[in-house]
Write a structure and sequence with these properties.
Layout (H helix, E strand, L loop, with lengths): L4 E9 L2 E9 L7 H14 L1 E5 H6 L2 H10 L10 E5 L5 E7 L10 H9 L3 H6 L2 H7 L10
Parallel strand pairs: 2-5
Antiparallel strand pairs: 1-2, 3-4
Length: 143
Amino acid sequence: VGNKGAVSIRMQAYDSDICFICGHLAAHRENVDSRNSDYHNIMTKTSFKIKKDEWNQMSTEERLSASRMRYNLYNEDSSNATFGVKRHDFIIWLGDLNYRMSTLSSDEQVFEHVFAKDLDWLILNDQLNIERRAGHVFKDFCE
């Protein structure tokens, strides 16, 4: 993803599969489309593997949990099963997402609303919130 990207790790806590993503998306106020693209690249290109020998050593419960998430099932020619981010029960994003205030807002306007503690205006004009409302990124995520 250019000079930006993410690292991801997954774990199982009881019967829940959890994925943590620490991302650094494109900077600068005008690069909303690049940030959105970075997000989609991370969500679609991140995959986790379970080696066949690890699979064979798993308990039945562990295999059932992994089966829910895997994109491709084992076959004679496959040595690894892979599954993506969206196959987890919980996905937690952190990092520098770099979304800013809308480009329609001047710095002066933003500071006026900050000093006036006008959170409604700030939330309404936040790029991440705008992109989420439009369905461009973080669909089905909650904050």
